[in-house]
């Protein structure tokens, strides 16, 4: 991977600290995050604003204290993928995403299977998400095929497929996508193998 690509997806150290704090602890206010990461307020406030402008954080709820309302922030889908790239625990992100985004089954499935694969698939998913605004079964198909060229074992593939069965809608869509991909590969194979 080129140095430019790595830097493009990396966060400033303070932003990384904030993202990792939120990934582990769930939605939080700026003030509480500042206390927990033991940093000063002004740079943390600037980092929060930058993360929000980049689309990595969003206000998910409001915390009321002494009659005043304070927004609590958490990671967006792109923020979750970025947190994974920065070293966040998939298990922590899965736990928090189930609470914050209970209807985002594709994201939860992805977070649940991620430990079975090479960490580079997060970059594939992030690119897909940036291009389309969501993860689709075709993206998961691409990830599965990409992993076949890595050190991922059959057992890990089998485990990922078992996890997928817990998400019936995504499982059905994934199987349909694999069928379509298989059909297209067969057509391509016939063209390649055709005698001149």
Structural class: mainly alpha
Shape: elongated
Strands of the widest sheet, in order across it, are 1-2
| DSSP strand content | 5-15%
Order of H and E elements:
HHHHEEHHHHHHH
Which bin fits the share of residues in helices?
55-70%
Report how far apart the termini are.
38 Å
Given as residue ranges, the uncertain stretches (5+ residues, pLDDT < 50) are 1-7
Overall number of strands: 2
Individual helix count: 11
The main pleated sheet reads as: 2 strands, antiparallel
How many domains? The number is: 2
Give the SSE map:
Elements: H1 3-9, H2 13-25, H3 30-37, H4 41-53, E1 57-65, E2 68-75, H5 77-85, H6 90-100, H7 105-113, H8 121-132, H9 137-147, H10 154-164, H11 168-193
Antiparallel strand pairs: 1-2
Helix pairs in contact: 2-5, 3-4, 5-8, 6-7, 8-9, 9-11
Structure overview:
With 196 residues, this protein is mainly alpha-helical. The chain folds into two domains: 1-89, Winged helix-like DNA-binding domain superfamily/Winged helix DNA-binding domain (Arc Repressor Mutant, subunit A, Orthogonal Bundle); 103-196, no CATH class. It contains eleven helices and two strands, in the order ααααββααααααα. The chain has helices at residues 3-9, 13-25, 30-37, 41-53, 77-85, 90-100, 105-113, 121-132, 137-147, 154-164, 168-193, and strands at 57-65, 68-75. A two-stranded antiparallel sheet has the order 1-2. α5 (77-85) runs antiparallel to α8 (121-132). The longest helix is centred in the last third of the chain and has 26 residues, at 168-193. The two termini are 38 Å apart. Residues 1-7 have low confidence and may be disordered.
